[in-house]
Amino acid sequence: MTLLIRLLINGVAIWLAAAWVTGIEIKTPEDTTQSKLLVIAAITVVFALVNALVKPIVKVLSFPFIVVSLGLFLLVINALMLWLTAKITGTTDYGLRVDGFWAAVLGGIIISLVNWVLGVLVPDED
């Protein structure tokens, strides 16, 4: 149940990033609500997989940069994970489109903040 709640929070965060950042958009084959929700769900699953599989490796390899920048390099890592998600979903006619590095950084910041705020409101089972 916690996994579904976390995926829902990530979906809301990605949707808000696409709504607020000019360089991020969600492409759908049809402009219906159901189609948009299905595409956001697929993007969320890809984003969760990228964060679970790739992000820990990138964090370990970039540990010196994280230390030297006092943690600010984590914003770059978040942007790269969002960009990688866009590249993976960009192989189809629908998915996430990110235009430029700074749009990815701003989207990563928004996704991190929304995840943090909604994570505080939704308690863990721990």
UniProtKB/TrEMBL annotation:
Keywords: Membrane, Transmembrane, Transmembrane helix. Pfam families: Phage_holin_4_2. InterPro entries: Phage_holin_4_2. The chain crosses the membrane at residues 7-24, 36-54, 61-81, 101-122. This is Phage holin family protein. It comes from Nocardia yunnanensis. The lineage of its organism: Bacteria, Bacillati, Actinomycetota, Actinomycetes, Mycobacteriales.
